[in-house]
Structures are given as structure tokens and as C-alpha cells.
Protein 1
Amino acid sequence: MQPTRYQITPLDPHAHLFEVRCTVDDPDPAGQRFRLPAWIPGSYLVREFARQFIDVRSESGDGPVALHKEAKDTWRAAPARGPLTLVARVYAFDLSVRTAYLDATRAYFNGPSVFLCPHGRAEAPCTLDIVAPEGAAYEQWRVATTLATDGAPTHGFGRYRAEDYDTLIDHPVEIGDFALASFAAGGAHHEIALTGRHDADLERLARDLARLCQWQIDFFGDVPQSRAPFDRYLFQITCVGEGYGGLEHRSSTSLLCKRDELPMRGREEITDDYLHFLGLASHEYFHAWNVKRIKPAAFVPYDLAREGYTRQLWAFEGITSYYDDLALVRCGLIDPARYLELLGQAISNVLRTPGRHVQSIAEASFDAWIKFYRQDENSPNAGISYYAKGSLVALALDLALRKSARGSLDAVMRILWDRYGRSGVGVPEGVVAQIASEVAGSDMQPFFDRFVDGTEDPPLASLLDAFGVDWHLRATSGASDRGGKPVQGVAPACWFGAKIGSDQALQHVFSDGPAERAGLAARDVLVALDGLRASTDTMNALLARRGPGERIRVHAFRRDELLDVDVELVAAPLDTCYLTLRGDVAPPALALRSAWLTGA
Ligand SMILES: [Zn+2]
């Protein structure tokens, strides 16, 4: 098959417009159709990328060709002699890792949001010409991508290639005057391209990422010759004042972080901010195996025109969320106490979500398209994150396998890699439970029935106990209390039952809590508490001084109407967890704990 030829040009950075061309040399004689994906793998929401396409037209060697729009994402050219080119301008001003961005500081794009797929040609090889923007202001711009070059110099503009459309759109491209660093791990050349104003210690970042990446390569690798399943890997990092996000690809990841999360020069410790960044990098890198190569059957191949339903996202996002932080302790970047703090935060996050008893993580996976990516004021009451609870189910499964069977989740992951990841065969629904049973040497289906398809909390306190880790619960001490540590300051005795923003508006009103029972609702704005101006301090003082059963008189606005209600407080729930390493541990528990935290 003739290659499909693409060209992209940062046409007008100030107007945020790319020009994208897609050329077919031998178009369908009945009229060539072109379609744009509606979603991007890794972010499970139909995003209708075609809405940013403007001024779409087609032309051939004979001149303009009539173009008919058939559906929201589909165009059909009139029968024409090849080569047939569809030309579009694409508005790109989304500062996220999912679509495309262009201004005078940088250009960035993900294939699904800019490259049309000619009907019947998904398997055809592709070439991509990346054209430099015109103007002296852009002379320093370079290109960072792991697309294979087809003549373009290293980091240069020019021609790149991909074996098929799916490959083309799984290699995002960063263009600009970015900083570069590199390191080797698992026989693969790794690069970091860092965009945005920063004063980060790039050498330190490369050193820490090298350690983390090598651990992950060894985890899945063939001992003693562990090799990465790619020759090159790219961390595309954009740092900003406020922002967070990551998206995985087969040989790269796009990360959006706060510049304060990058390591500072001259500082050796790992700050909480930097740890947050390392967790994100670890998460996306682990996806190079778990979801980019070990894929749910529903994604083989991806149908990017419509939702791809699977009840297994928890296994791809939850298990990855479990290993992202675990990798940091196992590779030695943090110590076990620091890891337990992260785990305590993850547990607290789930314990504070009443929706975990309403929706299972299998259901949450299936409904990601309409729920997880479309959260609203009622989300904490109605559902649970397949990331957050999924990571705890992964922890429980790992500990249960280690405790009873001398197996582990590590063994499950390696079997998934051997049977599905290496070959690219999709993982059918239910197979993770089967493999867990195989590793356990006993039927693990009841575990999955209760914690994956059911809404029970996994028994982490008792499992961790067998590993010499003590589980503690306490009340939340305030809005900034993420858990993971003993109480800081005075914990309030009472609970109001709502999450309150700094603007005193109720963000979430929790099911069957005091605020809901009193008739308060999300978006109500607190005005006064017991006759005093509402503020975080006023609320904290009242909750600390009052006892369960006592009342607070609340004035609040709903829209522009004043409400006057009495809220009857209840005892503060013990929804915040911290974990500690037990000092005097019996040798069997110590052996289990050591094997879990070192991966030995
Ligand atoms: Zn993920």
C-alpha cells in the first residue's frame, strides 16, 4: 500500500493555528473518506477533536475537489485522481497532554487531534513532514519525538515515518526551544525534553529517572539481560505555575507539572513536591508495559470513533498506580517510612469517598467515559476512582498472594507480560483473576467478586499486620490534611459533612451527613456560622469546640436566596489513615515485609 503522507506546519503561533495536510496517492475511486478520532488512548472521554478543525478543503493535481461533510468527524472528497490532499487548519490552544498547543513559546501535538485517517488505510505506512514555522523568532526551535526519522536530522524538522496510522498517532511531538538531558537504561536511550521556564537540576532528574526506569525494566525484563521493549524513550515535560497531568505512549510520555515539582539545584533531599512528580513519571513509564503493550482486549485494536468499553481499567490504572509509588521505594529513591506515608494518603483518599460503597471498580472502569472523566458535585457520593481504590485492591492482592501462597502480584504481572504483552494479544475480561488463581494455587475469584466486582473495602489492616505494618485511623484535621501522618494540630471532634472551598462555597455535600440532612446543597455559599462571618477558621474553631449532637446555625446563599438552617453535628469520622513500621517484628513478618518492599 502507498504510504499516507502527512504534513504539519505551525502556521500562525499567535492565532494558535496549525495547518495539517493528509495526502493519499491512490484515493478511493468512489470518493475518499477521511475520519478524525473522537478520543485519545489513555484518556477515556469522547472529546470530539474535529470541533477544532476549521476551513477544511481538498485538492488534487487537477485543482480543488468538492468535499462533503458526512458526520461530525468524517469528510468525503468527490471522486478524483490522485494525489488527493485534504487540508485543514486546526486551532490548538489546549494546555494539556491530550490534544495540541501552539503559541510563540512552543508547539505540541498528539496525532489523534490533528491527523485524519483515510478510510481503508489504517494499515498503510505513514510519512510525516514537520515544517518549521517561519520567522526569526523560531530559529532556535527543535523537535522532540520518538517517531522514527525518515531523513529529518536528530531533533530537527523534516520527514518522519510510522509503520501504520496507530503508530503515527501514538508519538506526540514537542517543538520549541526546550532543554534536553539523556540517560541510558535497559539498553535504551532515554531523553528528557523540558519545556517552560524553570531552574531545575536536569542532571539530578536524569540520574533519578535512570534509577527508576532501570528498576521497571528489570521488573518485566528477562534476567540477567534485562532490556526495555523499546530502543528510545522520551519524557516530554512541560512545567507551568499550576498544572498536572500525564499521558502514556508506547515509547514516550507527555507530562505536565508545576515547576516547583522539579528538583532544585544544590538540594539533595526529595521534597514532597518532587516526590509527586517522580510518582507521575513512574506511573506513565510503567504504562509502557501495562496498557501500552499489555492491553485490555477491548483496545485491540482501538476503535477511536466511539467508546471502548471494558471493566478492566482498574487493572491498568489501579495496578499501575500501585506500582508507581512502590517502584520509588523498591529502587531506593525513598525509604519504607516515606512509602508508607504515600500509602496512608492513598488509603485516606479512598476512605473519604462514600461512593466506594455504591460503585465497584469494575463498574467505574466501564463507566469511565461518562463518570470518571465527567466528575461533578455528586461524584464522591456516587462513585469511586478505579485509580485510587484500584491501587488499594492491587496492594491487597499483592499482600494476600505473598502471605498465603508465596506468590505475588509481581508474578501476575510477569505472566500478563509473557502471555499478552510480548505478543500484543489483548487481555480478555476475567483473565487477571484467572492468573491470580494460578499464582495463588487456589481460587482467587471470591477476592475479585468482593473487591473488584463488589463494593467491599479490601481488608488492608489485617493484611498489613502480617507484614509488620500497623494501621492507624484518626479524624481529619483540616482541608490540607492528606493523611499518611499522625495528627498535626488539633483534630476536630465533630463533622459538618461537606467539602468547603476557599470561597466558602460547598463543593461536595456528603451522603447522609449533617449538611445534607439540614438541607444544604452543593454550590451553597456559607455566609455566617452561629452569627459570625463564615471562614475556614470560624468553621474549624466551631468543629473543635462543639460536641456531637450540638448544632450550628448556618446562613448561606443558594443562588441569590438566603437560607437559614440548623446543622446538627456528628462525631468526626475516622477517615484518615497512617501506617507505621512495627519495631519488634517476628522473623516471618519481617521476611514478608522485606520481600514486599524490596521486590526480592
Ligand atoms: Zn495511568
Protein 2
Amino acid sequence: MSLSFEINSRSGNARGGRLITPHAEIETPVFMPVGTVASVKGVPQDTLEELGAQIILGNTYHLYLRPGVDTVRKLGGLHGFMSWRRAILTDSGGFQVFSLNELRKVSEEGVTFRSHLDGSSHFFSPESAMEAQIGLGADIIMAFDECTEYPADQARMRASMEMTARWAARSKKYFEEHKSEVPWGAASEIPTLAAKIAARMAHPPSLSHAGSGDATQSLFGIVQGGMDRALRKESAERTIEIGFPGYAIGGLSVGEPRELTREIVESTLEHLPKDKPRDRRGVGTPEEIVEYASLGVDMMDCVLPTRAARHGLLFTSEGKVSIKQARYAQDAGPLDANCGCRVCNRYSRAYLRHLYASNEVLAQVLNTIHNLSFYLDTMRRVRHSISLGEESRFLSSVWSRPKP
Ligand SMILES: [Zn+2]
């Protein structure tokens, strides 16, 4: 068994459930911290565990360029390489390649693009994107898709959606033929301490649901269709027809107004199977993750909490705090009196402001730990509200939570 998903509670359209992958049991809806290059910037893996992160994200495009899939594969996949026992999801690389704009060239075969690191030329096809993701060895991987730009005319949106459907079929075919090559046991070829650690990480003995060793990765399909509801519906139907254990709603947050994003997500969700996990990339502010959970999205990720933290922007139960402001210079209080994280338990706003003003690396570390804690905690409260059937309450609970 490689993936199972069960829904335990509902509140309106929101679902509370449990997603079981070979490396972790994940309560949903879940927020997934982003570890672009096999690192959640500034936060060590043991701290992520302490924060309760059950699944993190890696970016195929970045890891493919550096350190390279072969290196990661030889070191036991991402689990072994970065010493992470819990679940990992990788994206297909499609969105990142899309963001390169003028550096890419798209054909039926795939996408030629230039590295943002050194300008070298590379090629991703559905097959090579699968090969890369199998080598990286995440629990959940994504079909290779084309992210349609915004704005785009009807003909362009249709052509792009149809190509994504063809690429989804090619992705699945390659995955089915090669999924046994996942490197969860491969590290034993390398007689080093790193290999032993990698092997242990790849097969955590505590997880009985990892099964008899035949558990492997799960490939999710991605729905495209631009900003057109009918094309989204058709894309959902065609992707479901190919058949995947979970579905992502792609091609959003590409410059469209926020209201339109919500509308497209809401209408797309109607066409996705009720009993399969639904993933939505690049959400968002704390209000947005709550909002999307209320619509019935089960999995979300975003660089916002980590990126904002590095710029001194902190999310708290009383709203956003820009810690660089002089008003905090002598503020002895905690960053967030309602937060139980190790930063709020130990340090004052004055100290955090000083670290930021002094450009200390520790400022980035502590700020990121708090922001991730806030996001993970927000999702924990959302799950709790769903389990109690309190639809109306959790929507308003982001900035106004009671003291524990
Ligand atoms: Zn905190």
C-alpha cells in the first residue's frame, strides 16, 4: 500500500481526514512547509519535527540542477540525503520552468529551458520529470504539466490544457513502468555512515503501514485549464479518466486577481473525486489557507511564512508584525502571547527586533520557526474546528484565537 486517504469529519465543504504515505501519517487539511533545495530555509529537520510538520515539499527543478538527481538517488533519495523520516512531496518542475519565462521553449515533447544558475540548457519531458522525481524518492510526486500563463485567450487555454492531459497520460505510463526504481533501499550500496543513516531514514522501522516493502511513491494528476471554468471541468474529467490517487489544482497564482483564484478553485473542486486528496499549490496568507480548507482543499503549501520571516514580517494571533519597526526596540513582551512556540516562549520582541536590525542570521532562524509554527498551529485549529463541525467558527479564528 502506497497511499490511503480517509475522511473522518466534515463541516460544510471542509474535510478532516488522514492521509497515510509510506513515511508518515498526515492529518488533513495540512500545511506543508516548503524545502525548495532539500532545506526549509533556516530550520533544521529536528525543529521541523518538533513543530509537528508531517510532510514537507521539495522542488524538482532546483534539486535536478543542484546537487543533481543522481547524487540524491545514490544517498538514499531525499529522505536519506536530508535526514528526514517523515513524508515529502515534490512538484513536477513544470511551474518552476514556467516561471523562467523567456528562458524556456515548449513543444509537444517537453520543455527546453536554461538553468537560472549558469545558463546551461536542459530538457524536461513528462518522462524525464518522472525519472527525476522517482530518483528524488518523495512519497508523493506530480505529473508533468504545462502551467498556462495569465492572461491567455480561449484557444491558447484549450491547447495548453489538452497538452497537459497528454502529458499526464505519458507521466503515468512512465511512472507505472519505473516506480520500482525508487531509491528507498539503494543507499546500502554505499558503505558509509551516511548510507546507514539513509537506509534507516528510507525504511523507518516504526512505521508498520510502510508495509512489506512493496510500498512506493504515489503520482498525483494536475488539473489545468487556465481561468475558464468549462476547461477546468474538462481537464478534471480527463485527468480523472487517466486515474490518479490524488489531484492537484495547478496553474493558479500566475498574476490573476485573488477573487478569480478562489472562484476557479471552488469550481474545480466540484469536479474532483470526493474520496481523493486535493492539493492546491502556493496558498497563501493564513486567511487563505483557512479559506481554502473551508472549500475542501486537503493539502496546501506556500513559501510565504518562510520568505516573509526572512524579511521580518511575522504572523501572530493579533495580526501581522513587522519586527523591524522601532516601536519594538524596548518591547519586553513575547512576539505572540498566544503562541506556544520556542521563540515566543523564550525571546522578547525587543531582542527579535535587535537581531533583525543587526542582520544576524539568528533573526531569520527564529522568525521562520515562529511563522511556521503559526501556520501549522492555524491548520491544527482548523482541523479541530472541522472535527467539531464548527464551520462558521474556524473561518474567523485566524486572528482571534483564545488563549490555550
Ligand atoms: Zn511563536
Protein 3
Amino acid sequence: MSAPLRVGVVGVGWAGQQHIKAYAALDGVELLGIAGLEEAERTALAAEHGIEHDVARWEDLLALDGLEAVSVAVPTFLHAPIAIAALERGLHVLSEKPIALNGTEAATMVDAARAAGRVLDVAFNHRRRGDIQRLKAAIDEGRLGQTYYAKAWWLRRTGIPTIGSWFTQSNLAGGGPLVDIGVHVLDYALFLLGNPAVRSVSASTYDLLGRNGFGSSPEDNTKSGGGNADAKFDVEDLATVFMRLEGGGTLLVEASWAAHRADGDQFGVTLYGTEGGAELIVDDYAPVGSLKLFGDDAGTATAQRLRAGVGGAHPAVVAEFVDTVRSGDWAGRDGSAAAQLARIVDACYESAAAEREINIS
Ligand SMILES: NC(=O)c1ccc[n+]([C@@H]2O[C@H](COP(=O)([O-])OP(=O)(O)OC[C@H]3O[C@@H](n4cnc5c(N)ncnc54)[C@H](O)[C@@H]3O)[C@@H](O)[C@H]2O)c1
């Protein structure tokens, strides 16, 4: 039996807790320490999972003797500094999405991973869902033929993660729903389409509801700084993007935290191909969404419901990161795919500001 892999987690909010639980459930992993500003959460998590060190400052976590890998689950503006410091100490890093505030910062993280010869993974848990994986398998079996158009969305009526929290401040978050939930949508949509390069984007962003105080999540008042009347909101509450893809296909992405639409939270995707179409709709974080394939049988429309399992989420992301680190086969695990998504998101914001299509080289 080899020695356990000694890991740490920075951040004890929702995301950090997913990483902590996932590591704690894995054999051959020792959760050496956690860091976060909330002392009560930290000590409770440390007691629950038998974690030796719980510290406030991320710098103190990275300095722990014997630490080999770290998850970074903190506000987005801290991803790059913490990940780069960790990589420079020779640690492997699993960062939360989005990889960084923007593509330029993301590139510095990729450079640091390559220079250190260490793994830099980014948590894109939604593509691990069973319904998305089932749809991908159907596409790979050729059931849709050549896919040429997709529309993918994540829309909330009142789901701003607390007006005034770090999420609604562009210098801390990098943007609003496009960079927060839209980046998941972009990740799973491009995955389903076979990862074509995005050639150009034409985007619009709006902030008309959030900046007037409408749309803060009723269930979510836990984010720091939220809830006060003068709260800062300088990000979008809705983004729409039309993307031209390598090979001639196109993709429409919509992401909202606030919009006068049906109540609740919904994400999904529709795809059109030469042999068939598909639709996946996930309402209110259902573990398995409604997945249908459409086609034509000698002139008659066909619709088939596909069954899917729950699939993986953070536990799958964390387990794969641990397996990769242990395998010693780190080629290509340098965060560059997530950095490319960050460049695409940058181009979307540039397009929205300039009110024109932006080419991506
Ligand atoms: N993959 C997903 O599905 C998913 C879901 C939610 C959030 N996220 C991402 O996870 C990250 C964190 O989001 P969250 O919702 O958990 O945020 P949060 O505000 O609930 O928690 C942030 C945590 O970071 C800690 N922190 C802040 N500054 C720190 C510092 N200087 N040193 C140590 N700890 C510090 C806070 O104490 C807190 O524990 C974000 O990048 C977000 O985009 C991903």
C-alpha cells in the first residue's frame, strides 16, 4: 500500500465543502488541512472529517509540511494567486471554475503549471452528470448524425448569489452569470459538440434588474457582503451569445441570474443534427434531467425518452484529479482547456461592450 496523498482545501463555502467531502470519502487520501475565513465552519468541518490543521489564511495552508495537492475553492479573484503560489511550491492544484478572472490571468496559471511540471485541473462537474454523459454517448453512436446547431442555457428568475457579495463585483468575480454558470454551459455544450474551436462570438449583456435590486436569490443570503442596500452590483444579470464554430456549426448560449421568466432554475441544451435532434432539460437541480431524442421514421416524427443515471459531480472531479496525480501521467493536465474557455468568455464581454462580433484566433 503506497503512502496516502496529502491534500488541502482552501475555502469552506459551498464549493469548498464539496471538495472536502469528496476527499474525505476517498481511500488513500489524507486531508491534511483546510483554510477559510469562517472559524465556526472550519472547526466543525475539521472535527467532522478528522482534519489535523484548520487555518484562516491560505498562505498558512500552503506552508504545511508534506502537503502535495490543494483544491482552490475561493472567490474567483483569488484563484490565480493561490494556484500560482501552490504550483511554485510544487503542489498539484484543482481549481474551481471559472479558472480565473479572465484569460490573461488563466494563461499565467497555465504557464506556472507547465514551469512546475504539476497538474492544474479545473472543476467542470456538470459535464460529469449522467444525463450529459448519456447524451454524449448517443451523439458518439451517430444518433444525431452531423450536429450543426445547439442552444444551451442556464436561466434563473431570482438567482443572483446575493447582491453585494463577491459574486456581483466584477473585480472579484470577473463578471456575472456568463462567467459563473454560463461557463459550465459552454463547457458541456462544446463537449457534446466534440470540442470544436469557437471562431467568433457576438454577445449582449444586460444588468437592468440586478442593478435595481431585483433578483437576489431568496435562499442564498450566505455569501459575504450580501444583503445591504448599497450593495455593489457591476456585473450583468443576463448574457446571450451567438457563437460560430469550426466546421460551420453554431451555438447559442444564454445565462441569467435574474429575468422575468418562470420561477426556478433551469439549465439544458438542444442540439440539431442531420439524422436527429436532442433535448435535455434540468429543472431545479434535478439529479437527472428530461432527455429526449427526436428523429424521423419514413416521414413520421419520432420522439424517444432516454434513461440516464445520476452520474458524477464533484466526487468524480476530485477522484479523477487524485487518480491523475497518483498516475504520474500529467501530460496535458495544465489547465489549458479551461484557459481557452476563459478567452472565449473574455471575447463575449468584449463583444457586448463593442456591440459587434469578435473573432477568436
Ligand atoms: N463547480 C461548481 O458547481 C461551483 C458551485 C459554486 C461555486 N463554485 C466556485 O467555487 C468558488 C467559491 O464559491 P463559493 O460559492 O463556495 O463561495 P463562498 O463565498 O461561499 O465561499 C468562499 C470561501 O473562500 C474563503 N476565502 C475567501 N478569502 C479567503 C482567504 N483570503 N483565505 C482563505 N479563504 C478565503 C471564504 O472564507 C469562504 O470559505 C468560486 O470560484 C465559484 O465560482 C463552483
